[in-house]
């Protein structure tokens, strides 16, 4: 019965919550070849030393996690990155300026400006003047806006806001921007520490390896490129804090599972609450944990600790989650939660109670009575469950999307989004990843993970089964969306940490075992077998046969798997090394347990060397990724040349110009990518922004960009737009400009307004802007705004991104005028000409209320004149 | 009472306005007995700032001594008047020296049409029958009015300058001449008050003879001035003293191009003056330089500004509220540091930009101990950008925590008050002396002093605080480890 004994020990530990030194004790004591008589006196010293060393290493790991993310600040500057972080930054600014209560009620009218034309409502001339004025106020200038407090995950903002508040109260005058920039690195350090805790917990069954595996996993996570890509300094996004919350919630769940302490269960619910506040990825937690509970029940691992770990989390966690405005009743209503709350809660939560009840009854009834009671309960239970299930299925089926939102549907069917929702498909991070991106993002971890999984099976505990489940699900999800690689990274780090620490342990043990043999003739076998703690001998004895069989059984498929992998990824040395190490490691398993069979000295030395090379390779790759691949802030571009560094700071040039030289209430139209940046940096109202919930609106802007000047002017004018901003890379060769994104505008626009048809813009299925381009393409607004007067720069109009001369070089703009172009022409801003200069047949236009409804009339009235 | 003379050294102190009433009583009676024998006014309009040099030869033909003479300004002039300096010439020919004289405004209710009078205190009272020469320099801001008020990108900028052909004075002027110097010979039009002559870039009004007091004949000059009309609408300078050896300066600018407003189309191909592009060539994978032939622009837009910083400047930064501005150059030598900055975008008429320049300086260059044991900061007032008008200047001198009794010595009148600033780990806060002045021109770049008392023991306050908090943390942790906080009675269990 090793299980209860083991758990009893863990339980005791949990209650006493020993300092780190206690936990470190075994790993330092055990390998020591010290005299048993000396062990006690020296042990306490070693214990203290080990504790300090462990804390010191953890501190270093934290520093590493923090500092590896500072490349962006050192190479570029302390600035917010990308697009979404600008929104978060703006919200944080509002929070720090106006306080928490205003933050919850903040209606942001700087986004989604929407003009409902009044003429439709005021045709009736009998209308009361007052009523008309009211309409004017209510309908005419009606910003769609956004209720920030209710639509944003407030975790990140509140975290950074409270850090700022705390610092300011200590009279440390850091700006909000500085705090926001460094929030992500700080939380990466936290995440590394949380990983240490989480990895230590499931590897408890290895007794001594907990701390080692924990430290290794923490070090791996501190620099895993996948996580770095979302948490470099300046990348102020939800994921930055959410990954910490995710790992910490898992840790607390496992801690509760190991200890059965209600204290940790409550902490777990709170940590889950923080996760819900931070990121939409909380659904991953609330799906994964019920799955694990179900797994435990099915495999007969039910215990009261499982009940304590799960029930409070579901009840408390769901209650808390529904307090977050953006989640609200979604916490129980949407299908994304069905897995947990309805399907699984009805199944898992109820099943858990049923099982608990059964165990209870079993305890008080005699076996005979129990059988009778069992049949009774099972019949009633099945009846009730099926009834509830039926109702649920009916409810879900009656809703139009079957209760599934687009993003979650694309989770189940990776091709769903690209087939049906262009706006989701147009975002690169929603695409399924390619194989190289795995290598780029988790590097050698991808090869260490299988070894870690094997290690977790020897022996399988509640905690290690959870980690296995975690890695399995996250691998699946990462295969659906590149973005979810982020969820995979911690799991991969944990697995690799366990694998590496196991391997090192095996090799160093065999070296240690053999070293004395080299010098002395007499082997000290007896001392070796007895060097464990008190519990160990019994445990080893009990485990040995089962473990051995288990290992041999496991060995084969895993090796086969490895062979397959080898064939698939014949990439060279590293992989071979890895394969060998893993094979070594796996075959070592039983040796570890027995401690009698050891590897040859030379083999283990070589293996350690190879492992170190592997680790070095990982570190080099991570540093490279942090420094080169993931640190560019994307609003500032740089390029190196023989005479130094050149900075392309055009985006901020344009935003600063808008901020200082346009009216506060002017509306700026641009493609939605630049929405958040425009509101944050230029403080101007935008028509569409990166919060892509309103597809129709984005389609309207897409349609305007794809239309000829006149209809585009009408659309923009009906939206009360004053300025149009386009991003153009043709002069300097900046390839992610609007011309390259243009087909998405056409597609999204055409999805709502059928007169925009993609084939009109393609010549023989090819997208081109040179002389062979279609007339529709050459006359659309995007083309004109991008290439207006471009030919004057070099006389030919050579586009450096597309690598051709443009198709139409000399043309005038009739409805727009250029008001600003940045230094490298990367951002061009146009102003809508005022209508007076334009209308010639005024009376004719007036009769036709053309600009009335921007959406409906577009559909019916506007025809593409180029076909 | 009114017969006070002041030494040149005393001039540096802010004039006492108390006495002006008494001055006035005396002048009203004495104006009749002074006349200006010859007067010359040279107006320099080559920059956006109008600088006027006035030379007056004054004679006292009455009996009583005259300690002060008056200079008059029209209401618009006095509104735009940034600084007025007067000096007198001493010695003959080669050994000529200019001795500065103190100037103070005088309330003049009886002056016609709201003319504003300033009195210049002479070194020694002018005896009956004596003559003396007084030279005055005054600077007018915002006195060049763009017309047309809106120009397109390639048009030249034309401005009006309004003044009088005769010198406004409370005294009779026997002979006078006014010269107006424009940046180029391109003068659209000018008012003629005979005799008027124009040669090259200079227009001459006069000489006129025996004009009565307060005679005024308005003239208007319309000419081309393509200088950048850089106006700092608001400048907040923070000067933070740290006795650990650093002086930190932060200048927050709100800059505006105050010339003729830009209208119509903007085009890089016209705007660019010798621009070239660093092209990131996706095919060549390295940047290459691309030069274009651009038409020379006539417009008064500006790309760069030059800031003169003190020598030994370090850690200079130039940014705005959305991050670093990467276009600046710093040249340091032992005499001075020049910081050439470009706003994010070229400024056309009416366009605005904000930015911040910050830098550190070694403390020993600027902080001294006076003979009475007080410390004083000696720093330059005014704006480091050259040829720039500052509409509203605020200088905040943030003294170290624990300093007391700050007093400022500024060579011209400023508003001042005290406030508290809280910075790194402050408990009581740092006393901050705030000096405010409107209408500041480069002529105000003059050293000023802030005196304060400081006990060096305060330097140790914050390090000690940090040390003790770390110590307390460890004490608390040790206590926590050794105290059993559990509710249960400790049980001896045999596990």
TrEMBL record, chain A:
Cellular component GO terms held in the UniProt record: endoplasmic reticulum membrane
Protein's UniProt keywords contain Manganese: yes
Swiss-Prot/TrEMBL keywords: Endoplasmic reticulum, Glycoprotein, Glycosyltransferase, Magnesium, Manganese, Membrane, Metal-binding, Transferase, Transmembrane, Transmembrane helix
Gene3D superfamilies assigned to the protein according to its UniProt record, in alphabetical order: 3.40.50.12610
Sequence ranges assigned to domain Oligosaccharyl transferase STT3 N-terminal in this UniProt record: 53-121, 142-495
Bilayer-crossing regions: 48-68, 144-167, 179-198, 210-228, 240-266, 272-295, 307-329, 341-361, 373-397, 438-458, 465-482, 596-620
Region of interest (Disordered), ranges: 522-585, 837-867
EC class: transferase
InterPro entries in alphabetical order: Oligo_trans_STT3, STT3_N
Stretches with biased composition (Basic residues): 837-848
Pfam families: STT3 (PF02516)
Localization of this protein: Endoplasmic reticulum membrane
The protein's required cofactors: Mn(2+); Mg(2+)
Catalysed reaction, written as an equation: a di-trans,poly-cis-dolichyl diphosphooligosaccharide + L-asparaginyl-[protein] = N(4)-(oligosaccharide-(1->4)-N-acetyl-beta-D-glucosaminyl-(1->4)-N-acetyl-beta-D-glucosaminyl)-L-asparaginyl-[protein] + a di-trans,poly-cis-dolichyl diphosphate + H(+)
Residue ranges with Basic and acidic residues bias: 547-558, 567-585
Pathway where it operates: Protein modification; protein glycosylation
Topology class, membrane: Multi-pass membrane protein
Gene Ontology molecular function terms on file: dolichyl-diphosphooligosaccharide-protein glycotransferase activity; metal ion binding
Function: Catalytic subunit of the oligosaccharyl transferase (OST) complex that catalyzes the initial transfer of a defined glycan (Glc(3)Man(9)GlcNAc(2) in eukaryotes) from the lipid carrier dolichol-pyrophosphate to an asparagine residue within an Asn-X-Ser/Thr consensus motif in nascent polypeptide chains, the first step in protein N-glycosylation. N-glycosylation occurs cotranslationally and the complex associates with the Sec61 complex at the channel-forming translocon complex that mediates protein translocation across the endoplasmic reticulum (ER).
Protein name per Swiss-Prot or TrEMBL: dolichyl-diphosphooligosaccharide--protein glycotransferase
Organism of derivation: Zingiber officinale (Ginger)
Automatic annotation (TrEMBL), chain B:
GO cellular component: oligosaccharyltransferase complex
One GO BP: protein N-linked glycosylation via asparagine
Keyword Transmembrane helix on entry: yes
Pfam families referenced in this protein's UniProt entry, alphabetically: Ribophorin_I (PF04597)
Spans through the membrane: 464-483
Segment forming the signal sequence: 1-30
Recorded superkingdom: Eukaryota
Keywords: Endoplasmic reticulum, Membrane, Signal, Transmembrane, Transmembrane helix
Membrane topology: Single-pass type I membrane protein
Pathway given in the UniProt record: Protein modification; protein glycosylation
Localization per Swiss-Prot or TrEMBL: Endoplasmic reticulum membrane
Main localization (coarse): endoplasmic reticulum
Subunit structure: Component of the oligosaccharyltransferase (OST) complex.
Function: Subunit of the oligosaccharyl transferase (OST) complex that catalyzes the initial transfer of a defined glycan (Glc(3)Man(9)GlcNAc(2) in eukaryotes) from the lipid carrier dolichol-pyrophosphate to an asparagine residue within an Asn-X-Ser/Thr consensus motif in nascent polypeptide chains, the first step in protein N-glycosylation. N-glycosylation occurs cotranslationally and the complex associates with the Sec61 complex at the channel-forming translocon complex that mediates protein translocation across the endoplasmic reticulum (ER). All subunits are required for a maximal enzyme activity.
Family from the record: Belongs to the OST1 family.
The name this protein goes by in its record: Dolichyl-diphosphooligosaccharide--protein glycosyltransferase subunit 1
Organism per entry: Zingiber officinale (Ginger)
């Amino acid at each position: 019965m090793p299980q209860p004994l083991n758990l009893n020990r863990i339980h005791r530990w949990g209650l006493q919550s020993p300092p780190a030194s206690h936990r470190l004790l075994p790993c330092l004591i055990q390998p020591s070849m010290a005299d048993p008589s000396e062990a006690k006196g020296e042990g306490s010293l070693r214990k203290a030393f080990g504790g300090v060393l462990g804390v010191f290493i953890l501190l270093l790991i934290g520093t590493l996690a923090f500092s590896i993310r500072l490349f962006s600040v050192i190479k570029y500057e302390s600035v917010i990155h990308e697009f979404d972080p600008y929104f978060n930054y703006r919200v944080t600014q509002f929070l720090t300026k106006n306080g928490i209560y205003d933050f919850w009620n903040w209606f942001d009218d700087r986004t989604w400006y929407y003009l409902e034309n009044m003429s439709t409502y005021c045709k009736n001339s009998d209308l009361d003047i007052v009523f008309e004025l009211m309409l004017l106020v209510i309908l005419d200038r009606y910003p769609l806006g956004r209720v920030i407090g209710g639509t944003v995950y407030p975790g990140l903002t509140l975290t950074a806001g409270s850090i700022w508040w705390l610092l300011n109260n200590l009279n440390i005058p850091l700006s909000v921007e500085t705090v926001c920039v460094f929030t992500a690195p700080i939380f990466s350090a936290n995440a590394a520490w949380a990983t240490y805790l989480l990895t230590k917990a499931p590897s408890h069954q290895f007794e001594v390896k907990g701390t080692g595996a924990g430290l290794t996993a923490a070090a791996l996570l501190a620099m895993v490129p996948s996580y770095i890509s979302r948490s470099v300094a300046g990348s102020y996004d939800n994921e930055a804090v959410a990954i910490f919350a995710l790992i910490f919630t898992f840790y607390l769940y496992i801690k509760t599972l190991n200890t059965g302490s209600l204290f940790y269960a409550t902490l777990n619910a709170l940590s889950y609450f923080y996760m819900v506040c931070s990121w939409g990825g909380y659904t991953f937690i609330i799906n994964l944990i019920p799955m694990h509970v179900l797994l435990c029940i099915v495999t007969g691992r039910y215990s009261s600790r499982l009940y304590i770990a799960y029930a409070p989390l579901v009840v408390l966690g769901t209650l808390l989650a529904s307090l977050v405005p953006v989640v609200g009743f979604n916490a129980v209503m949407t299908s994304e939660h069905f897995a947990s709350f309805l399907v699984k809660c009805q199944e898992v939560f109820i099943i858990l109670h049923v099982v608990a009840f059964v165990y209870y009854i079993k305890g008080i009834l005699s076996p005979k009575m129990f059988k009778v009671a069992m049949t009774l309960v099972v019949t009633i239970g099945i009846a009730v469950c099926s009834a509830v299930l039926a109702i649920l299925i009916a409810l879900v089926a009656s809703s139009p999307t079957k209760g599934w939102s687009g993003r979650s549907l694309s989770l189940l069917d990776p091709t769903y989004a690209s087939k049906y929702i262009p706006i989701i498909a147009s975002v690169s991070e929603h695409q399924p990843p390619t194989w190289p991106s795995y290598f780029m993002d988790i590097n050698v971890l991808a090869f260490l993970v299988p070894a870690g999984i094997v290690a977790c099976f020897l022996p399988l505990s509640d905690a290690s089964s959870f980690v296995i489940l975690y890695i399995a699900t996250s691998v699946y999800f990462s295969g659906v969306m590149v973005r979810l690689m982020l969820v995979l990274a911690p799991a991969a780090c944990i697995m690799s940490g366990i694998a590496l620490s196991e391997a090192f342990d095996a090799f160093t043990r065999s070296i240690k075992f053999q070293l004395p043999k080299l010098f002395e003739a007499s082997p000290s076998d007896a001392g070796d077998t007895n060097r464990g703690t008190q519990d160990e001998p019994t445990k080893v004895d009990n485990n040995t046969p089962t473990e051995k069989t288990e290992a041999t059984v496991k060995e084969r498929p895993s090796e086969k798997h490895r062979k397959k992998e080898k064939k698939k990824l014949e990439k060279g040395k590293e992989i071979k090394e890895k394969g060998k190490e893993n094979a070594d490691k796996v075959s070592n398993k039983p040796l570890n347990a027995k401690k009698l069979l050891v590897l040859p000295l030379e083999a283990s030395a070589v293996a350690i060397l190879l492992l170190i090379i592997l680790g070095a390779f990982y570190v080099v790759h991570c540093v490279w990724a942090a420094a080169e691949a993931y640190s560019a802030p994307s609003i500032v571009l740089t390029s190196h040349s023989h005479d130094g560094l050149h900075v392309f700071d055009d985006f901020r040039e344009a935003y600063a110009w808008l901020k200082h030289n346009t009216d506060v209430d002017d509306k700026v139209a641009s493609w939605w990518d630049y929405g958040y940046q425009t509101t944050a940096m230029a403080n101007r109202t935008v028509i569409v922004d990166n919060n892509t919930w309103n597809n129709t609106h984005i389609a309207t802007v897409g349609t305007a960009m794809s239309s000829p000047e006149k209809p585009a002017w009408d659309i923009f004018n009906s939206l009360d737009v004053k300025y149009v901003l386009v991003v153009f890379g043709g002069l300097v060769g900046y390839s992610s400009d609007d011309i390259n994104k243009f087909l998405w505008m056409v597609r999204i626009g055409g999805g709502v307004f059928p007169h925009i048809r993609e084939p009109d813009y393609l010549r023989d299925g090819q997208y081109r802007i040179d002389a062979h381009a279609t007339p529709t393409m050459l006359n659309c607004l995007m083309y004109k705004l991008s290439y207006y007067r471009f030919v004057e720069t070099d006389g030919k109009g050579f586009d450096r991104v597309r690598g051709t001369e443009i198709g139409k070089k000399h043309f005038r703009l009739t409805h727009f005028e250029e008001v600003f172009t940045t230094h490298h022409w990367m951002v061009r801003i146009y102003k809508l000409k005022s209508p007076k200069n334009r209308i010639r047949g005024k009376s004719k236009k007036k009769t036709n209320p053309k600009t009335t409804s921007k959406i409906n009339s577009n559909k019916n009235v506007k025809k593409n004149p180029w076909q | 009472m009114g017969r006070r003379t002041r030494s040149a050294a005393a001039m540096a102190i802010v004039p006492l306005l108390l006495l002006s009433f008494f001055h006035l009583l005396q002048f009203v009676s004495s104006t009749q007995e002074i006349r200006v024998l010859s007067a010359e006014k040279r107006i320099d309009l080559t920059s956006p700032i109008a600088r006027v040099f006035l030379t007056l030869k004054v004679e006292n033909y009455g009996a009583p001594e005259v300690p002060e003479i008056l200079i008059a300004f029209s209401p618009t002039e006095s509104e735009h008047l940034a600084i007025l300096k007067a000096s007198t010439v001493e010695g003959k020919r080669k050994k000529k020296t200019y001795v500065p004289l103190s100037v103070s405004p005088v309330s003049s209710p009886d002056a016609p049409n709201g003319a504003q009078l300033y009195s210049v205190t002479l070194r020694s009272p002018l005896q009956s029958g004596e003559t003396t020469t007084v030279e005055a320099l005054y600077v007018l801001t915002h006195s060049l009015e763009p017309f047309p008020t809106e120009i397109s990108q390639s048009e030249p900028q034309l401005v009006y300058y309004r003044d009088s052909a005769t010198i406004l004075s409370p005294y009779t002027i026997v002979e006078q001449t006014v010269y107006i110097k424009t940046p180029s010979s391109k003068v659209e039009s000018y008012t003629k008050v005979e005799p008027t002559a124009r040669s090259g870039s200079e227009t001459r009004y006069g000489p006129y003879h025996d004009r009565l007091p307060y005679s005024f004949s308005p003239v208007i000059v319309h000419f081309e001035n393509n200088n950048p009309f850089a106006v700092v609408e608001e400048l907040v300078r923070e000067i933070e003293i740290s006795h650990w050896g650093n002086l930190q300066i932060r200048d927050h600018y709100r800059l505006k191009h105050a010339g003729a407003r830009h209208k119509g189309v903007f085009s890089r191909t016209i705007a660019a003056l010798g621009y070239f592009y660093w092209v990131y060539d996706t095919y060549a994978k390295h940047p290459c330089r691309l030069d274009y032939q651009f038409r020379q622009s006539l417009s008064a837009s500006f790309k760069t500004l030059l800031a003169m910083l003190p020598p030994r400047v370090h850690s200079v930064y130039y940014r705005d509220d959305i991050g670093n501005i990467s276009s600046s150059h710093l040249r340091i030598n032992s005499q001075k540091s020049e910081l050439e900055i470009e706003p994010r975008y070229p400024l056309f008429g009416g366009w605005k930009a904000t930015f911040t320049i910050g830098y550190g300086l070694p403390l020993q260059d600027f902080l001294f101990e006076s003979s009475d044991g007080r410390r004083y900061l000696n720093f330059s007032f005014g704006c480091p950008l050259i040829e720039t008008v500052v509409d509203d200047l605020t200088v905040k001198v943030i003294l170290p925590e624990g300093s007391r009794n700050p007093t400022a010595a500024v060579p011209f009148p400023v508003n001042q008050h005290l406030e508290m600033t809280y910075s790194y780990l402050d408990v009581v806060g740092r006393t901050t002396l705030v000096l405010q002045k409107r209408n500041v021109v480069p002529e105000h770049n003059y050293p000023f002093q802030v005196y304060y008392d400081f006990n060096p023991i305060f330097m140790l306050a914050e390090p000690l605080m940090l040390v003790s908090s770390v110590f307390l943390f460890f004490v608390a942790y040790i206590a926590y480890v050794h105290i059993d906080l559990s509710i249960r009675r400790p049980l001896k269990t045999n596990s």
